[in-house]
Structure formats: structure tokens, C-alpha cells
Amino acid sequence: MLHTLSLSIPSISNRKPISSSLPANPVPLYLKFRTSHRENLRYLKALRILHPSTNNTKLPSPDAVDHILATVHFLKSKGFTDSDFSRLVLLCPQLFSTTFEPTDVTPVFDFLTTELPASPEDSCELILRCPSILFSDVEFCLRPTLNYLRKLGVQNLSTPSNLNAHLLNTGVEKLRKKIGFLRSIEFSHEEAANVCVRLPAIFGYSLDNNLWPKYKYLLNEMERSVEELKRFPQYFAFSLEKRIVPRHLHLKEKNVRLPLNRMLLWGDQKFYAKWK
């Protein structure tokens, strides 16, 4: 990597010119020097792209270092700061491999800033929450997912959050499975879409380990109806073991029946103080 240092020599007001042939505005002098391989390694260690205690025999070659530095400069040109790199390398180390080409992810940056659209700063924040989004295909994943979510009515997808970042990086078929689950338990398509708008996190819930067990407990143990679930779909957001089951059993013991929202929304202190 080539750095250029400009040394401008100021004139001294009380000194007479040595020769009248000197130009009135002297051209600044330039010193050129090449950053040493050791300094580059130190920089990559400071960014945590290289572990500070990496053995000298396992350090990358000068060519590999130049390649990684090119990636660093590319990402910084998109708005990332030095403090962001430790997270990027932790969650997506392939970004800093010698096989990675920055031009491969340019379409993702373009998609985020023009089609989503998000500001460059918000685009970086979304990527930091889900760095693997950089390796998603715009044509076959990101754009179809965005269009599908918009059709359902999900809004504010450009707001940087863990949910939005992972939603955008989820294939349409996986999203459709959650709609299919809701349809299978007697939600209309419109009602299912409304649930996804009110609770977009449902797209990230496991069918086998989350949605089906909670649904079956609601019907079989709590003896509640699907209509209650339609009124309060946020039921799916609460832990079955830590919230739903203990509170249901506590109210059953007290012979008290509450609407789902009152049963689950209150904090533990308020809930158990009210229903001693």
C-alpha cells in the first residue's frame, strides 16, 4: 500500500529570497514511502481481523494482507468504522478471506440503499445485525422477500433492527410456511397477514419448537379458542415454559380466568401481587 506524505515548506516573512529565479508559489515537496508489512499486520490486529496473539508462522503473506486491506477500505468507503470490524469478522469471517471480492457484494449495498431504501448509515447497521445478508442473492432472495413482506403489509423494513435484518435475509418459502401454519389453524389469509404485520417476529419462530407446542397448549390445556388467539397473536411471543405455563397454572389454582393479554403482558411483580 502506498502512502503519500505532503511536506509543505512555509516561507518566512523577514527572509529575503536567495534568488529572483525562484517561483513565487513554490511547489510542495513530496515524500513517498511504502507502509511496511509489519505496520499493516499491526493495523489488522488492531481491527481484530487478525488475532493479536497470532503466531508469526501463521500470519498472512504480504499479498494476502494487501487483499484484506482492500476489503477493509471498500467497507469503510460504504460507511463502516474501525469499531465495526470486530463484529464483522466474528459473524462473517469469510469477508476477510483471500477469495472474497468486494465487487461481489456491491449489488447488496445498491439494493439496500435504492430499493429498500435505507440510508448508507442504516444499511451498515442492518448488515452489522446480519452480516450474512451480504452473501444473499438480490434477484433470488432479497428482492422477492422485500416484495412479499410489502404485499403482506409489513412496514418500516429499512429501520435497522435485528428483526428487519434477518427478515430481509429469509427466503420467501420460509415466510410462506408461517402463513401456512396460521391458515391451518383457521386463520383466513387476511387474518394471517394481519398477524404478521402485528407480530413480524413470528417469521423467525420455529414451527416444531415454538408455534405448534404453544398452539396445542392453548387449546388442550388452557381450553382457549382460536378466536382469542386472533385477538392476541402476541401470545406466540411469550415463553411457554417461563411465562405461559406458570401463569396458567397459577390462575387455574386461584380459579381465575383472564384474557390472554392481561395474563401475559403484566410483569411478574404486578401479576403475582394482583393474583396472590
UniProtKB/TrEMBL annotation:
Keywords: Transcription, Transcription regulation, Transcription termination, Transit peptide. It holds the Pfam family mTERF. InterPro entries: MTERF (IPR003690), MTERF_sf (IPR038538). The keyword Transcription regulation applies. It comes from the Eukaryota. One of its GO terms (molecular function) is nucleic acid binding. One of its GO terms (biological process) is DNA-templated transcription termination. Belongs to the mTERF family. This is Transcription termination factor MTEF1, chloroplastic.
